[in-house]
Amino acid sequence: MPDRLGEHDEAAIDTDRWRGAGDRIETLLDASSAGGVVARERAEQLVREVSDLYGAGLARILELVDPGARERLVADDLIASLLLVHGLHPHDVDTRVRAALDSVRPYLGSHGGDVELLDVHDGVVRLELSGSCRTCPSSSVTLELAVEDAVRAAAPEIESIEVAAAQAESTDSLISADSLFARVHADTHPVEAHGSWIVVPELAELGAGEVGGFVIGGQTVLACRVGDDLFVYRDHCPSCDHSLAGAALQRRVGFPVGDAVLRCPTCLAHYDAVHAGARVDGEGHLEPLPVLVRAGELSVAVPMEVAG
Hints:
The protein is of the alpha+beta class. The chain has helices spanning 10-19, 21-32, 37-64, 67-75, 77-85, 93-109, 139-154, 177-180, 190-194, 304-307; strands at 113-121, 124-131, 160-165, 174-175, 195-199, 211-216, 219-226, 229-234, 249-250, 261-263, 270-272, 288-289, 291-294, 297-303. 37% of the residues lie in helices and 23% in strands.
């Protein structure tokens, strides 16, 4: 299966660079401590002065632009993060969390599931997970790398996330957040510890009904487009333990437009490409990987256990 993953484009590189700006600033401040307490205090004061200057500039920009332009600014991840730092974001935490959940809802829907916001109180976000997503073999990947990533990016001030099962499906109370979510801000290297979002702009090249092989983070995956939606799976057939290289999308006889199954070219097992890779002619399940648009870039979440 060919490796279609190329170099990240300039925009993606810039985005990654600015995401690490906070860490680089802290490193420089720590280095200034070598010059003594006074040097450290002066460095911190310099950072505050520059930060206040840019904060005042951002506030003035928000006053001058019309509501439509303001919403476009807020939709940009980098600008939104700066507005949050300066306390200028026009949306409250509840609105931002709801928007974050809307961004991952199409992915959850492909698993036959959904997520709803119950409430946000005292820094705790409570969510309700419903549908077959709860029992999907990649549910931990979905939760940790998709839902939490989106929520924490939109509302970095939250302290924890709790998930409750839908009452119609289970009598269980709250599922321990510690068992489902990685505490992103508690780890020194959270991305490396649990997985990585990798920008894959080449996915956009897939046409409707097309299947392609990619190497992402050292892991060979199979990607396909059904209508406007993209789906990514680990390149492994659980039925015969072989690669899915050569698989093609097919529509089952009598099923509506939008139905799409992947047939393993080795054992001919059929998997529902739209609904989390569930096998339609027997037992088994492909291993789906989250694919989302992050900071305007198509990205795939490759967890540590998958990438090895």
